[in-house]
Specification:
- The chain contains 17 helices and no strands.
- It is mainly α.
- The chain has a single domain, classed as Growth Hormone, Chain: A (Up-down Bundle).
- It is globular, with a radius of gyration of 20 Å.
């Protein structure tokens, strides 16, 4: 279903405005994910300032993941009569409020409240945004629009982490949240100016949310998604403490190394977007295998700066491609996933994995040390790779 503006501009102008509307949602998804993963690079500062352990500080990632998984399923139902334009703009403002509350948090319980509020926005925004690209442009361009929106998620995932230590080192961790809150106004303004009216296109009910799970292909893909994302956040949530303890990196070097991860992740996202169309199966398998290798090699090679640099570059390249690769795999294996009904299930799986991964990694770090979390994450990534190999026929050969 495509949506037209109330006024009737020339076709070329309408097309430009439609793509600008898609871009406004992509900027919103970038802001969403940057917010979610900002604390990864601030764990050491927050745990010292708010007097909690590093593993406990990792629940700043766990809390919004749990709440987002619930809100991804619940909000589309609760807001089923609400125009999607208004819903997206309101949820974008929730990110800003959550950041301000986090920056003002006098203690850790208030911090968790702020992060839980963020989770409400994340789950609702992502559940709506995943399927909205096909409504903003003609049907034949829907896949391209969806990929652009997901590129915001991929880039935000890798940029949000280095943004934390960079801002925190120069201005303090509280200022990092305030800066991101200010930047969060940009997608809110863009969506207000560019998004057309988007009435609800289909009824969302509790029963309809299970539609995707009735597909065998979808169940396999969602299981691989769960293993992959749990793997990533069991390991990467604690990469800053690893670099501080095991590599002996200074705050400046940590920021630089995480920027390497971010730059490689952006490259990985756009490289995957290019190769997925003509070689979906090889791309998915290569991305999962590289992710597993990076996590397993980090404890050994990452003990030296040069090794950490190399591993984080490969790791970033792999993970930058993960969201768009998993989304493309799911949408092609089970086309019903592209609907708002299906997207809520995918988002809930993704966010549950983030929560479980960061919590699992935190338990391991508290009981042992950050390298153990890397090994655990690597084992889960191997399991995801093997699942994709065993059920290779579920992964289409290409995305055309």
């Amino acid at each position: 279903m495509s949506v037209t503006l109330n006024t009737a501009p020339p076709a070329a102008a309408a097309s430009r405005r439609a793509w600008l509307a898609v871009l406004s949602v992509a900027v919103g998804s970038f802001n969403l994910v940057t917010n979610e993963f900002l604390p990864v690079g601030l764990l050491s500062d927050v745990h010292r300032d708010l007097h909690v352990s590093e593993g406990t500080a990792g629940t700043m990632i766990t809390a919004p993941g749990i709440v987002a998984a619930i809100s991804a399923l619940a909000l589309p139902i609760l807001l089923q009569r609400v125009n999607r334009r208004g819903a997206l703009i309101t949820l974008s403002l929730v990110f800003v409020l959550a950041d301000v509350l986090a920056g003002l948090a006098p203690n850790y319980p208030v911090m968790l409240m702020a992060r839980a509020l963020l989770g409400i926005g994340i789950g609702g925004f992502w559940a709506v945004a995943v399927g909205i690209g096909t409504r903003l442009v003609p049907e034949e361009l829907g896949q391209r629009a969806t990929s652009i929106i997901f590129s915001g998620i991929s880039i935000g995932t890798v940029v949000g982490v280095p943004a934390g230590p960079m801002l925190g080192h120069h201005f303090g961790w509280r200022a990092a949240f305030f800066v991101v809150a200010g930047l969060g106004l940009i997608p809110t303004i863009l969506q207000t100016l560019l998004l057309p009216s988007l009435p609800v296109s289909e009824a969302i009910t509790v029963r309809s949310l299970g539609t995707l799970l009735r597909s065998r292909n979808a169940r396999i893909t969602l299981t691989a998604t769960f293993l992959t994302i749990t793997s990533q956040f069991a390991a990467y949530t604690y990469v800053a403490p690893f670099l501080e303890r095991e590599t002996g990196a200074s705050p400046t070097l940590i920021s630089t190394l995480l920027l390497v991860f971010a730059a490689a992740g952006i490259a990985g996202n756009f490289a995957a977007a290019t190769t997925l169309g003509r070689a979906l199966r090889p791309t998915v398998l290569a991305v999962l295998a590289l992710l597993a290798a990076s996590e397993l090699l980090m404890p050994g090679l990452g003990a030296r700066s040069a090794g950490a640099f190399t591993v984080l570059a490969v790791w970033g390249l792999a993970y930058g491609a993960v969201p768009v690769a998993l989304q493309t795999w799911l949408f092609k294996a089970s086309p019903e996933a592209a609907s708002e009904n299906g997207s809520g299930t995918f988002v809930a799986t993704f966010q549950t994995s983030i929560a479980i991964g960061s919590l699992f990694g935190g338990l391991i770090v508290n009981a042992s040390a950050p390298p153990a979390a890397m090994y655990a994450g690597g084992a889960l990534a191997i399991a995801a790779t093997l699942l994709a190999v065993v059920f290779a026929r579920v992964v289409p050969t290409n995305a055309q």
